[in-house]
Amino acid sequence: MKPTILLVNPPIYDFTAYDFWLKPYGLLRVGGLLRDHTDLYLFDYMDRNQPDFDRTLAAKTTQWGCGPYIKTKIRKPEIFSKIPRFFYRFGRKNEMFRNVLHSKKHLDFVCIQTSLTYWYPGVKEVIDDVRRIHPRATIVLGGFYATCCPSHAAALGADLVIRDSALSPLFERLQLPIPQGFTLPAWDLYPALSTGVIKLTQGCPFGCSYCYVPQSKVAFATRPVEECLEELDFLVGLGCTNIAFYDDALLYRPHEVLFPFLEAAIQRQYPVHFHTPNALHARFLTSEIAQLMIKAGVKTFYLGFESRSATFHGPSGGKVVSDDLVAAVEHLRRAGADMNCVTAYEMLGHPRFAAQQLEGSMRFAAQLGIRVMLSDFSPIPGTPDGELCRGIVDLDEPLSHNKTAFPILFLGSETVSYYKDLCRELNRTVRAK
Ligand code: SF4
């Protein structure tokens, strides 16, 4: 008899959450490996296409498929008592999940996707429900929180914690060989799909000091383009009209996979829009890449631009300097990009805040006629910049990595509000141009 496996994408506990093309891609890829050998099911708490999703919120979905989640205001964890913000549980109702658990006579494995470290209360909620209703099911955690905080994750009550993509322990427990060769992610488990994600590469060759990717030791590699195109065909066939690239270094070594992928997408003339929520490297955004991306249907461009200050860039990995950003924006403009859909990410609350010269950097990006988005700094343990924050917060408690809370604790609420207001103001000016 085939083992019965339930894949779960948990709810989110946080001050804010927004569907910015969030999909449990790692979990779905594991699902793809399991598909032929198991009875496989999916429960995605964050699926905005479900019939139980609030219709008024669904109406707020943007033309690119992003939008708000259902949320319930809840009591703030004690650690956030000094943060002057409301705290919520985001995602579908817990009773929907319990109904699914009750509907299954038997469950052998429950595989739970974990994401940001400080979202672990949602993982715990899922574990507690599974333990109560299917006490004999083997609970498996994988994903970023499991990789970054394995001991903490194990203490939540899981039977198996998978770090990085080391899937052998899971397949050993299942007494199945790991399938060799390519399998499609289990997107077909969704009853309806309008947005999807894809990765053409794995890993990142750069070493930004605030990022966990270099610590994970996953070597950069491009995927075979035929596999990527098969995934694209699959997503389009299932109804996706917006697809986000989840790559950490999409523009690196573009001749190996990005160029042939975009050329094939142009040829196929799919009615699909592509997006780049993981920051693109402005330095690698050449005129050739800009033209191909626009022609292939890439609609939104997010460029990493932490600071225009050379003092900041020295120790932080030197990702993008001002000249790179100017050149990238010019290439996009000439290729015909909608400048309202070009955004520079800038970090708020970085421990070397003074060196970052944030206001000047924000104004610099806005003067180029593009939008600015503040990405709140999250201190990730094990990264050089995260470790700088040990004196400010208790890094061993993952809630303290929260990206809304940390900048407020570090800079104070007034300073944070000042930069958020400035950001809104700059973006208003850009829109008006
Ligand atoms: S380029 Fe992006 S993924 Fe790579 S190390 Fe820097 S922040 Fe991390």
Measured as a percent range, the helix fraction is 25-40%
Largest sheet: 6 strands, parallel
Strands of the widest sheet, in order across it, are 11-14-15-16-17-18
CATH topology of the largest domain, what is it called?
TIM Barrel
Category from helices, strands and their pairing: alpha/beta
The distinct ligands, each listed once, are:
iron/sulfur cluster
The CATH superfamily of the largest domain is Aldolase class I
Which whole number gives the mean pLDDT?
Answer: 94
CATH classification class of the largest domain: Alpha Beta
**How many helices does DSSP assign?**
18
Name of the CATH architecture of the largest domain: Alpha-Beta Barrel
Low-confidence blocks of residues = none
Quote the distance from N terminus to C terminus. Answer: 64 Å
Q: Can you tell me the number of structural domains?
A: 2
Number of strands: 18
Q: Output the radius of gyration.
A: 21 Å
Provide the β-strand percentage band.
15-25%
Task: Give the CA-based shape.
Answer: globular
